[in-house]
Amino acid sequence: MLAPRLSIDPFDEAFLADPYAQHQALREAGPVVWLEPIQAYGMARFSEVQAGLRDYGTFCSGRGVGLSDFAAETPWRPPSLLLEADPPLHDRTRGLMNRIVSWQALKAIRPVWQERAEALADRLVEQRRFDAVAELGETYPMLVFPDTIGVPVEGREKLLAYAAAVFNAFGPRNAIFDRGNEQAGDAAEWVAKACKRENLSEGGWGMAVYEAADRGECSADEAERLVRSFLTAGVDTTVNGIGHMMLAFASFPGEWQKLRERPHLVKRAFEESLRWDSTVQTFFRTTTMAVEVGGVTIPAGSKVLLFLAAANRDPRKWEDPDRFAIDRPLGGHVGFGFGIHQCLGQMVARLEAELVLAALLKRVKSIRLAGEPKRRLNNTLHAIASLPVEVEPA
Ligand code: OVM
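A: This is the predicted complex of the input protein with 3-methoxybenzoic acid.
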């Protein structure tokens, strides 16, 4: 059977401004669709997305997780040794990185991260009105993450524009991609320098990658590129994860009341906000052989776009999926992906969100929107430019 052909372009500006409006059409058209404007397959139902992520041998990452096929085109930047790698390379680099982003490492940073979350919450609640993106979603990760990696203070604000450009590059070379590159300016050069051993501070996770190289776990060149992964994947993702968590509570005020009564739900509230609005909306895979999905044969060498965010709202899997409900039964969302590539930094993201949310919960009786949220269009991330909120102190 052939896949239904759709004229939906998942990277046009209308789609990116409100992807949820079109996810239903993608899911209902079939388990696999052919997206004419980008000449690629797509899967938007939970079970097919999860199965695709699980089957890393058939749906590979080494040919890139963007629209560009690294087997046919030169990658936009040297490929990530994690995200854009397959086993056995991937398993070696991932194992090394997992030992750095360990439970013990998180336990060690927690007190300082908590102090910074409490101090920030004090300030914002005193203000009462603030921008939950500029003053919280961006501020908090930038207060804790770059120090943990150990990058220079001077210029570190460039990390945001760099990440935006990289996440744009997983899509087509559209106007959003061009604009992102313009705004990034010399950010890529700054990041390249920051990844070098001599620019990383002692005791940071960046230096820890070079120490793994000293032990023979990878080469020095590989270490440099693995530090780049921290810097690419670690900021804009949590920025928008925290932003959407705040948007979720501002949009569903009853959930804040619920959380005030049941504060032990803090961690679940963040998981649910990621299900409700998945920061990383999509990633591609490339088929290494012909594969049949739901009666449709996808030929070898095809790009397949996996709609993580659509899967996370698939009514086949979730009851009342558009509702943000912090006490819904745990379902295993794919907002952090699934399988061998599942987010390396998920514990970091969870820690940031938990500390921010717990700090606000102690101090805030209610949250409401104080203006129209503004979106920032990105080819991969669901991003917010500004989110004016007003809080009522507890
Ligand atoms: C990397 C990388 C870049 C972007 C995203 C990501 C979500 C990883 O350079 O390894 O994971």
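The longest helix spans residues 103-127. The chain has a mean pLDDT of 98.
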